[in-house]
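Appendix C: a fully annotated inverse folding record. The material below is reproduced so that readers can follow the format used throughout the book. The structure is listed first as tokens, followed by the designed sequence.
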């Protein structure tokens, strides 16, 4: 099978690197989860506030797993608050924002819930609503489109 099927849809692996350009998050590893309806971003210190009579949300994001730094302070318009049932069965009212995401050359807007994902393996979950009619998912492969930028090697001082 090629990287595009007969429907002309590109393939995504079960995990990919993407960016959140509207949020100044240059890269974050996501789990593509067709079993989850909505997408979720690990966020903490979540606060809502008013700006020009519009509700906004301010929060911190740490894009890399197994680290506590660097954190990125983000502000975005609050689109909604929704009840979401987590993987452990608990319902939680979560803030929803609507940023652009980008995987490779593909860029589009999604609804993204904010939640504590500290105990989860990935800082972001990309649910089926975000990928429906845009991609086919190959659960046996990873990083088909969203390649992690190479780290620059620091020159050793002599």
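Designed amino acids, in order:
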């Amino acid at each position: 099978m090629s990287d595009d099927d007969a429907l002309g849809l590109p393939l995504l692996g079960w995990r990919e690197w993407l960016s959140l350009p509207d949020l100044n998050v240059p890269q974050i590893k996501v789990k593509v989860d067709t079993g989850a309806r909505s997408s979720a971003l690990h966020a903490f210190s979540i606060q809502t506030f008013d700006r020009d009579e519009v509700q906004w949300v301010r929060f911190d994001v740490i894009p890399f797993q197994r680290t506590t730094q660097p954190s990125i302070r983000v502000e975005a318009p609050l689109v909604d608050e929704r009840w979401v049932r987590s993987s452990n069965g608990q319902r939680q009212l979560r803030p929803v924002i609507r940023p652009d995401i980008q995987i490779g050359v593909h860029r589009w807007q999604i609804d993204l819930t904010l939640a504590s994902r500290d105990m989860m393996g990935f800082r972001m979950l990309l649910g089926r609503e975000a990928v429906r009619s845009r991609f086919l998912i190959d659960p046996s492969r990873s990083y088909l489109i969203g390649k992690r930028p190479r780290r620059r090697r620091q020159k050793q001082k002599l």
